[in-house]
Amino acid sequence: MRVSAASRAVLSCLGTGGTRRPTAAVVLKAFRPPVGETRVDLLHLLEDLRDAYPGALEETILTEIVANALDSGANRISMVADPATATFTAADDGSGMKRRELARYHDVAASTKTRGEGIGFAGVGIKLGLLVCEEVLTETRRGKTHVATRWHLASRHRAPWKWLPPPGLAGERGTAVRLKLRNALSPLVDTGFIEAALRRNYQPLLDPTFDAILAAHYPRGVSFEVNGRRLERQGWDAAETAPLALRLARRRKASAVGYLVREPAPLPEERRGVAISTLGKVIKHGWDWLGVAPATPERLGGLIEVPALAGSLTLNKADFIRVGPRGAAYLAYRKTIQEAVSRQLALWGDARDQAEESRRRAARPLERDLERVLVELAGDFPLLA
Ligand SMILES: Nc1ncnc2c1ncn2[C@@H]1O[C@H](COP(=O)(O)OP(=O)(O)O)[C@@H](O)[C@H]1O
Ligand SMILES: [Mg+2]
Fold this sequence. Notes:
By secondary structure, the chain is of the alpha+beta class. The chain contains 9 helices and 13 strands. It has 4 domains: 1-36, no CATH class; 48-201, 2-Layer Sandwich (Heat Shock Protein 90); 206-347, Ribosomal Protein S5, domain 2, CATH 3.30.230; 352-384. It has helices at residues 5-13, 24-30, 42-52, 57-71, 99-105, 191-201, 211-214, 324-347, 352-380, and strands at 76-82, 87-92, 133-142, 145-151, 161-164, 174-181, 223-226, 229-230, 240-246, 256-262, 273-278, 281-284, 300-305. The strands form 2 sheets. The chain has an 8-stranded mixed beta sheet with strand order 5-4-3-6-2-1-7-8, covered by helices on one side. The protein is elongated. The structure holds adenosine-5'-diphosphate (ADP) and magnesium ion (MG).
């Protein structure tokens, strides 16, 4: 076997050359093409994902599980929190999964969804559960398929799962996920936290105002149950309410629906400003995202649902994309909402410039008095003038 001068140089660097003639095996080993495989530090990846979501991890896990149920076409989502066993179980009556789909469900970045058609698309949501669980049990029923798996994070790099006989958590059709929490005091076993988080994150699904606009996506409606109690649906019962309905591109049907409310007293912090949702999931709230500054921001609230913006969601579902065509859609909607909200504020006399004008008018007599006093003082104390 011939070894070129260059190869000999490399081999001697590697300490295998020298005066001895290298064997073919040694040459082959040294020149093996550089193949490898991308490995994933799963724990690190999940922690980075967790940090990319705003708010508490438990709230994210809850909203992701609900998002999966909604995306599967569920019309009933029942949750059970059991502090005694440190478990949280969510069962839906959606499409369920075929055996192969349940296998894929455990793969990071694997999704069966198309962006814009639902709330999920990235294929990472359910994996966040691994961070707080001793075990994630998933059972699903679809047609003749009835299967279940058990899954956990075994080390930095490994999250093994295995099939197990279905324990009977799922109904006739749909999927059930049971989280066995590491922390027995996790908020996920607290029904108060679960209800508040559901109302905060899925407010439009619990408010009849949005039934019509959401019917295209959830034709049978959606109901939530927590420990056997159905969450009551209620609108925002405010002192003053102004409906908002936005028609884009001369469409007959409104592409965004909602309302603004005004209360005589300041609202709790988290209810101030306009919340924007897509497919029932609240994405942003407050005044900053909208870029409107009313005169009395603490007394004004509102909510607007824009189904088409599901296509502009960012991975963490806490914002909308601002670049490219998806970003343009968001910016166009934002501008239209800005205009509608500003119009209503003007009607209420709550626009900032209007408020400043009325403040100025109210202050005018005082200003005149002050001026007179100063003029008189200037007469007595010429240095003041
Ligand atoms: N409740 C459910 N019902 C039916 N399929 C589900 C459910 N939860 C998860 N899946 C399936 O598992 C996949 C992975 O879920 P997930 O990690 O949350 O990512 P994503 O929702 O972004 O696709 C989904 O694409 C879906 O096919
Ligand atoms: Mg998901």
